[in-house]
Design a protein that fits this description.
Elements lengths: L6 E4 L10 H5 L4 E8 L1 E4 L5 E4 L5 E8 L3 H12 L11 E10 L5 E9 L8 E2 L10
Antiparallel strand pairs: 1-5, 2-5, 2-6, 3-4, 3-8, 6-7
């Protein structure tokens, strides 16, 4: 891949305080509030989905890892991404431009984007910020 980065954009269970943060992000070098162009959906099953769209904003965090290959190996399993079989993946991993909210700087980060049709349970989250319900 021509675009290589040591950053991942998190918008769901990898966010600080969420279910998968400690397990997958404990070795993070930094975590910064960030946003990306897209649309966010609550799937109603404990995790969200981001879809590519020229309209809308998704808010989350950019997590910088010391060893991106090791981080992606674990994250790919969590996100159901199969690099050798993308057509069978739940999410696709892409390098996209993300805006750091504190500085306005644009950086590249890996993003997991929903592949295929959203389930009937999916509800658009207009605020672009996901947090699971009670």
């Amino acid at each position: 891949m021509a675009d290589k980065t040591n950053r991942v954009f998190a918008y769901g269970t990898l966010l600080r305080g969420e279910a998968n943060h400690e397990r997958f992000c404990a070795d993070a070098l930094s975590i910064e509030p960030a946003s990306i162009t897209g649309r966010l959906y609550d799937l109603g099953i404990g995790f969200p989905a981001m879809v590519s769209s020229a309209f809308g904003t998704v808010y989350g965090e950019v997590i910088t890892f010391p060893d991106i290959d090791a981080a992606l190996a674990g994250l790919d399993v969590l996100e159901g991404y199969h690099p050798d079989r993308p057509g069978q993946s739940l999410y696709l991993r892409r390098v996209q431009t993300v805006t750091l909210l504190d500085s306005g700087e644009e950086v590249l980060a890996y993003c997991y984007v929903w592949r295929g049709l959203l389930p009937d349970s999916a509800v658009h989250v207009p605020s672009g910020q996901w947090r699971p319900g009670p």
